Amino acid sequence: MIAKEYWQALTWIDWTASSASEDRAGAPRLHDLRVFPQLLAPCRANLLDGLPLIDAFRQFVLDDPEVASLGREAVRLAPKFASVFFEGRHHVFGFREWPLAFERWTTKITIHPDPAKRSKYDPRGEPDPIEAVVAAEARLHRYRTLISLLRAGELESRASPGTAGAVEQITRAIWSHTEFSFDPYTGNILQDNPCSTADHDRYIKRWVGVVLQKPTRADQGANASGSARTQARLEQKRPESVLRSHAPPFTPADVIALGSLSRALDHLVFNHPEIRILCQIAISVADARQIPFEEDAGLVVQVLGYDDAALPLRYFAHLVEQPDEPPLPESPEEGAISAEYFGVELPPDVRAYYDAVKLRADTLIGMLQQQQMVARGHTADGHLVQIAHSIWSHLEYYVHPPTGDVYNASTRPMTKRWSGVVLEAPAEPQFHVKPTEHHGIRSTSTENNAGAQPRRRKTASKRRKAAAKRGKAAAERRKTPAQASIEQAVAALWPDGVPNTMLLKTRDQMIARWQKGNGVLAVSSKTVRRFLTADGRFRE
Questions:
Q1: Burial of 49 (0-12, 13-18, 19+ CB in 10 A)
Q2: Backbone angles phi, psi at 294, to 5 degrees
Q3: Do 511 and 490 touch, CB atoms closer than 8 A?
């Protein structure tokens, strides 16, 4: 990059040869000069590092030399666009907020003078000057470029949650989420309010004071998995499940390179090029034979009380569960019913498509269950937290594939637990060494003890607190392995407590399955009820 000060010293420029030099003997000559918009320059990450998001939007979108020049001409010809090009509003007369998922919402704000170049989603009314159309397209291009840098991980963002709390990172997945928008007047990131009653409460302030920064580690492409040692460790780990008989269609490094759960489901599971080819073949076969066909391979279902289809994580519980005992053989009557309703033989091409999609879904969720990668997401108040690996086989949780949000279905309607879920390489194992204690001989000299204060006797309240602390420590020491195993299972399966509506038999079975799947002591239902009450509390 040519520094501003050096560029001002150049006195001779050959525009046809794209070269320049100083007008003095022996001065170096620059060849093959290239001029970039700032957001397209190779050094763009350095230019944006440390800038607040609102300043980056104003400097590199609104004040981009091309956008600013075209915008001034557009406002001269159509003054109604002043708030768009000078203030940064998204629409002329509509909402001022910019959607982060710009490809899923209409972003057209002008009416092309040529009717052949209009779409049914364009605004209605009198056509605008072509200068305004060109300026709006340039402004939209710069905005998309800025947001795409955050999606790709070339830039990171940190902000304070809108409610309260310390500065935290905003995950990459948020920048393509359909529920979030950017306020060009304040720089805040807003979230759609599902309980909105009017325009004034249409959004929830999710993050304020957003600041851009260069990534702290290389997390793109092959380097997404961190160091070479981490990469090798990820390649060696494989889910100890039914996937053993199949070669994994992708690796943890492939998933981590995509960054978010929604992109992994889209690029590696449902819309992978190989999957799309198999899908087209399967659709043609199903149409020819006039049989039903599920493009999502039956993995995505409608949930009561929720508008969009979701992916039940209970479909993947078989990857970690081991059956307590083999299933009982079918009776003749049960066999006849199964043959009538479930014995339909699918064509090989349709079956091949279903198997391929399910293998990829099993591989992705299995990697999360086996902790080959770490998932983090934003809670309802905007805080970024790690998601327990046991969630990915939980019977009550669902994933919304387009956004990657994770929902809890134990309530009606479902509750969104985590938004903008990102997938990262697990942290390197750390070796914790207990610091060495220096046991010196206490000095009895008068000089060393001259400043010592006389010991104070403990008050009654302090003695009671010390006794309670000793009693608690003794109870921890008396805790049996069975009790510790049950407490681990309950904490992993039900972070918010055991649901009161769950049957005791179902609760005990889920605890036993979790214990077997995680290699801890498995106990009987009788033992579980010895420590757990009917309402899910541990007995004193």
A1: middle
A2: -110, 110
A3: yes
Neighbours of 386 (CB within 10 A): 11
Same domain membership, residue 181 and residue 96: yes
CA atoms within 13 Å, Cβ hemisphere of 281: 15
- Does the model's pTM come out above 0.70? no
Residue with tokens 């963002």: 157
- Give the number of other CB atoms < 10 A from CB of residue 501: 6
| Helix/strand/coil percent split, the chain, to 5 | 45, 15, 45
Q: Say which residues have a Cβ less than 8 Å from residue 101's Cβ, sequence separation at least 6.
A: 176, 177, 178, 180
The answer to whether position 301 is within a domain reads yes
Spacing of C-alpha 256 from chain mean position: 11
Q: Which domain holds residue 262?
A: 221-327+346-424
Q: Residues 285, 307: one domain? A: yes
Q: What are the structure tokens assigned to 376, written together?
A: 């983090």
Q: Do 384 and 487 fall within a single domain?
A: no
Q: Do residues 418 and 387 lie in contact, with contact meaning Cβ atoms separated by under 8 Å?
A: yes
The 10s digit of each residue's pLDDT in 6-61 is: 777 777 777 788 887 777 767 777 777 777 788 888 888 988 998 899 999 999 99
151-200 confidence digits (pLDDT tens)? 988 999 988 887 666 788 899 899 999 899 999 998 899 999 888 888 77
**CA–CA gap between residue 53 and residue 208 (Å, rounded):** 10
Q: Residue ranges of the alpha helices (H) in 78-129?
A: 82
Domain boundary among 213, 231, 249: 213
Residue written as tokens 């179902």? 506
Indicate the number of domains in the chain. Answer: 4
The candidate with the shortest Cα–Cα distance to 376, out of 364, 394, 389, is: 389
Q: Which amino acid is at 92?
A: V
Supply 300's token pair.
Answer: 């995505």
What does the alpha-carbon distance between residue 393 and residue 520 come to, in Å, rounded to a whole number? Answer: 17
Same domain, 351 and 410: yes
Asked whether the beta carbons of 199 and 398 are under 8 A apart, the reply is: no
500 within 8 A of 536, measured Cβ to Cβ: yes
Helix pair 348-369, 273-289: axis angle to 10 deg = 140
- Phi, psi at residue 384, to the nearest 5°? -95, 120
Residue 523 and residue 485 in contact, taking contact as beta carbons nearer than 8 Å: yes
- Token duo for residue 7: 């560029």
